[in-house]
Amino acid sequence: MLVLNALEAGPASLASLVQTTGLARPTAHRLAVALEHHRLVHRDAQGRFILGPRLAELAVAAGEDRLLAIAQPVLAQLRDHTGESAQLYRRQGDVRVCVAAAERSSGLRDTVPVGSALPMTAGSAAQVLLAWEEPDRLHRGLRGAKFEAATLAAVRRRGWAQSVGEREPGVGSVSAPIRGAGGRVIAAISVSGPLERLTRSPGRLHAAAVVAAAEKITEAMRRTAG
After folding, report:
1. What number is the average pLDDT over the span 13-28?
2. CATH class assigned to 56-225
3. b or e along 145-180 (b: 16 or more beta carbons within 10 Å of the residue's beta carbon)?
4. CATH code for the part of the protein at 2-51
5. Most CB atoms closer than 10 Å: which of 88, 159, 165, 185?
């Protein structure tokens, strides 16, 4: 912890670590290298020690626990309001994972089990999770996608996405972004169901409700962040 606390201020050479922590040079080096092995510490281009990517992953996991606790009742409210199944997706690499859901209890429905990994190349949730990415990552994500850059520009402009048979024939969906610290998109909330109910313009039916649910979760995340 002495080493990690010292690196919170920014990149540090071994000599700087020794000075800041008061540890003996061999001890500081051994601890820093061990932390590097576990990705809690990393090296920059100048070979200085910096905080590692594992810390960010742990922070995301902690944030996800909070997100799930906040989102579950909102998903149930969204399902009851729209009459369609509601899901929460997070991006993990090249897929999006359903991390929470509230299923329609009866009748024809689109069921996405929690834990399902779906492609980032189709569906309104994929559009939302990609639309606000950095330009180079966005353009890489469009390779092989069933939607185009113009589609994502429209998503950014109106604040929600819709898909009609993109992921699965006969199924439509509407999604909106959930934002975390600094306004970054951290998840997508969706409703999905058969096109015979959602029609060819599912956004016209459910965009307002989905956006309101996304904003409710975003605001609750912002309140609990402190």
Report:
1. 94
2. alpha beta
3. bebeeebbebbeeeebbbbbebbeeebbbbbbbbbb
4. 1.10.10.10
5. 88
